[in-house]
Every structure is written in structure tokens, then in C-alpha cells.
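Lecture notes, unit on protein representations.

Consider one protein chain, 142 amino acids long.
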Amino acid sequence: MKLNIYISIIIIFLISRSLGEIWTNCGPNEKFKITSVSIVPDPPVKGKLVTITGSGDLGESVTGGEVQILVKYGLIILIKETKDLCTFPGLPFTCPINKGTYSQTVNFTIPESAPNGKYTGHVSINDQNSTEIACIDVTLTL
């Protein structure tokens, strides 16, 4: 379950520019360009299955890197972790990640017990040279 949450967070943040005002790109230049995205239902609803499908193009090969994830409910930190990009389970690639197009679909349910309120998140993905590949901020109110 925790793995699906991590994968969902990464995909949500990577596809965020396509989804509207809730999602913003926080990076100066993206090496990973989103080409298509769908989220059902949009917006996500507590207790309902959420399906997110995203596709994008990686402009140059990556041999390593890190994923930094921060998710907060108000001022409370829910997730604050740094993961190795190459060993992050469930992602649709392994290192080296070749230049090209990638697609992923993730299904998850927002628990009914999730408290109403403001959730914020930040995901930054860096390559083997600590150069940012993607950076996404999200704000969602349940």
C-alpha cells in the first residue's frame, strides 16, 4: 500500500502541469516533458478508486539519481523521504533510463478516513549529476 502511495505521488506530481491550477511546475527547466495525462475522477474523491495515467518524454538518458518527496497536511509532515531513482520499486524503468517515451498507470484509493483540509506536496527528481529533471508542487483540498 505504501509503495502505491509513493508511485501515485510521483506520477501525480510529474503530470501535474497538465491537470490545472492545483498543480504547478517548480523547476526552471524540465528534462522530462509530459505529453499526456488522465485522472479519473477529476478531482479525486475520498473512498473512490482513482486512476492516473501519464506519459512523457525524457530528453536525455539518466544513469542515476534521487527522488525527494515531501507531503504535508497543513503543517504536519506526512511523508519526507529521499529515494534512489534507480531502485524505486514500481516505476516503469530501470537505470540506465534511456532517452525516450514512458507511460504509467496507477490505481489507488484515497482513504475515507483522510481528514478534510489542505494537503501540499513537493517532488524533486535529480539525475546522477544532481541536476533537476523535474520539480512539481501540488496543493489539494479534500
